Amino acid sequence: AQSVTQPDIHITVSEGASLELRCNYSYGATPYLFWYVQSPGQGLQLLLKYFSGDTLVQGIKGFEAEFKRSQSSFNLRKPSVHWSDAAEYFCAVGADMRFGAGTRLTVKP
Amino acid sequence: GAGVSQSPSNKVTEKGKDVELRCDPISGHTALYWYRQSLGQGLEFLIYFQGNSAPDKSGLPSDRFSAERTGGSVSTLTIQRTQQEDSAVYLCASSFSQNTGELFFGEGSRLTVL
Prior knowledge:
The complex is a heterodimer of chains A (109) and B (114). Chain A is mainly beta and 109 residues long. Chain A has strands at 3-5, 10-14, 19-21, 24-26, 33-38, 44-50, 56-58, 64-68, 73-78, 87-93, 98-99, 103-108. Helix content of chain A is 0%, strand content 51%. In chain A, strand 7 (56-58) and strand 8 (64-68) form a beta hairpin. Chain A is globular and about 40 Å long. The chains are: A mainly beta (109), B mainly beta (114). Chain A binds chain B through residues 6, 32, 34, 36, 43-44, 46, 49, 51, 90, 95-102, and chain B through 33, 35, 41-45, 48, 56, 91, 93, 98-99, 101-103, 105-108.
């Protein structure tokens, strides 16, 4: 069965620092992969998605993610974090959209 | 409306009562998903509908939970004989098709079981 693991429950970074959020998946074939963000008091918003092709995908708000088949990973990155990036981040996999447990990002001034 | 609409936004009920949560997806969206989000928890998949295909019910936690989607549009999630552990935010999302990946979420229905 397909599954998604986000190993980090909570991450704290300083504003301006780089960020990497981890996502590992278990899936029988090349999966559809997604990152969503849930800001406090708001609904979920799609950051980016991977279906096929170039393994480095660009998303909104300066985020990018890289699909690594050999590592079954789809990690989310941002070179310089802004205070407004503080939120819950969810990785999802597959056409039936199974979500990971989420990573809560705190940004220190 | 322009977005996914869910009702009620808040529901407080007594243990043992039945509740119905409604989701009105974006017009033209063939895929509809239900998730449960408990405090501090991730998104727990419950069920999804895709067009006229049989729904994937594999995420429903018990037989007290059921969902219908009438006419390929509005969906109702029913929880029978509610328990305190059912307290959560129930999120509905829709997508133009199963494979586009972009889900549009409603604001959720917050259920509190006393």
